[in-house]
Queue: 3 jobs
Job 1
Amino acid sequence: MLIGTYSQKLDEKGRLNFPVRFRDEMGDQFYVTCWLDECLIALPAARFEQIFARLTESGMVKNRGLRRMLYAGAVEAVPDKQGRILLPPPLREHAGLDKEVVVIGVGDCVELWDPARWKAMQDSMRSGDMAAAMEELDL
């Protein structure tokens, strides 16, 4: 399971040292793409393919915007010998990533956040969104 939070730095070439714990879970090849809430998502190859199949089955017209967002910007991530992955400029721009990146495990995937956006997300969840979500799930 992908869990935990790590603060990482982007180098001048846009490479991110992907946490070892996440690399071990994700494997030698995974995908990174734009995600909701102005962050990026990293998905194991099998999960990425499952999402693609589900979107394809559920109809082109209904999901074309989501398909465009997920697949047009997607890149195959293969960590180098130092464990770094390259985040191309369009992905960094989507998520507002400059020098610092918060890398969080969310169960079956990993999200990459700008620190200020991540803090704002945490603050909004603390303000009642989390309680409402837990109540809806009967937790």
Note: Residues 115-136 form the longest helix (22 residues).
Job 2
Amino acid sequence: MTRNSKIVELTHSVVHYYSEGEGPKILFLHGTNSDGESSFGHIVNEFSKERTVIIPDYAGCGKSTLPQGEITVEKLAEQVAEIIKDSSKNPIDLVGISIGAVVAAVVAARYPELVRKLVLTAPWATSQDPRHQFIFQTWLKLEMNNPDDAMAFSLSHVLSPEFLVSLGDEKIKQICNKPPAKDIDKRIKLGLDIDICDLLSHIDKPTLVIGLKFDTLIPPYQAERVHKSIKGSKYAEIMSGHAVQIENPRDWVACVKDFLQKI
């Protein structure tokens, strides 16, 4: 299937996306320590037979650049909004994971004309949670001083214990030896300073919030708070660690499809 790649220039940054398939458009937003392809490349075929799948790099990941000046969710939402405008004439279905879910929520609140339905996986409304601060501050300190330990730390929080063990020693070592995503420290800092509580009440699109049962980076209670803040939203919980698209893609894809196909 043909894959089309494009670059979109904003006044403060450059973003990249590729699209594949034909039909109603669906856009996936990746998390902090990845890009579009590494997060979703393996599940594109699950959707592209009946949809146009749009996979961006944003927030300085992959072939994108960070916005100039301070990085904020509003600037990242602007990046995503420009990708939607460039790739579609009609509102799209928007799916985000982790910080991608936070950004997706901001897009839906600030650019409602661009969104048809919204799926937020492992989102959080505010970083002013003692446990969240502890986890992200530790992650940031490790990233600044010992990237190898930072990778091991993050891996232990994005995968459930059972799934992590199933990878085996050699695979775990290979993952931990990979270089971190560029500018990850800036995105971790952003993760320490999220507050979209006021924006959530403005979301008026059909929304599904997904919590992840074994997630220790963004535990289900944080996703539930987001669900309770979006009027009329639905909530589902999947048996997985944080990186559900890697750990339990079958159940996650089924959950997303089921929600999007409903009238």
Note: The mean pLDDT is 96.
Job 3
Amino acid sequence: MAKMKFMEAIRETIRQEMAADPFLFLIGEDVGKYGGERGVTGDLWYQFGDDRVRDAPISETAIVGCALGASMTGCRAIVEIPFNNFLGICMDQIFNQAAKIRYMSGGQAQVRLVIRAAMGGYVGAAAHHSDCLASWFVHIPGIKVVVPSMPDDAAGLLRASLRDGNPVIFFEHHGLYSVVGDVPDDPDFVVPLGKARLIREGSDCTVVATALQVHKSLEAASQLAAEGIDIEIVDPRTLDPLDQETILASVAKTRHVVIVHEEWVMNGYGSEIAAIIADKGIRYLDGPIKRVGAKHAPIPFSPPLENYVLPQVDDIVRAVKAAIRNEEPESRPPFEGA
């Protein structure tokens, strides 16, 4: 085991995989000598050079299209998109090409492509750089969607994604890059796609949370424990494939559930998880399914406004109490300015 930041776990996994496979390359904006928008790619350019760590113009469509074509001809490709908001620019390459080529070719063409996309708010980056958009891609068959919350999962899930043989969108929350944790030294350490992680055991309520919201849920757990409420936290880790069995088993145990994500509540992937629980686990529930997410508004630049729009620890606490008590959660106090 080695202590690593979340971003270091990603970088070292890329380094190990590139060292093992000369046909694996990385492409993106400023991923070379500059070391990536957030410094994630670091010194990889110095080790592997221009041919395999390729700086590209600011054209997300061209970047994804280049990587997609190369992946169909025997290479493996990693794309870095510094803000997931800009995935919208290259949607045709993703959902109309990458997601369908293996099916349309009868399996003759593989798309060994991982798109790393940074996401998330709480960093004052304003409306164009702060969204969480995984729900867009969970809706599309043919794409796998990965949302790690811990450094070891970042390493193991990224390696699994690179070895999967299908297009994967790998979402990295800006707020997690400096989180430190133990990461196995094994260059073959893999976390299987489609297997959830039990972050915290509990008996009173299941909280299904992803990415940064896992950490906020842990904070909520400490507050709730002081009031005698013991929550269980399940991190799906991958949204497609989704580990329904682990989620349903936890709900059967606690008989209450809250789903937490940073995306907007309306039509977020939390809605699908709630639907699965209602469809397959309604007999387990002793109270309503509660969801916590962003308010239905663009993410503001102003820190007080941003914090008002995005989910906070107190929102999780209120939702858990409401789920257990079978009532509507207390309203958050109205915004009164800085």
Note: The two ends are 44 Å apart (CA to CA).
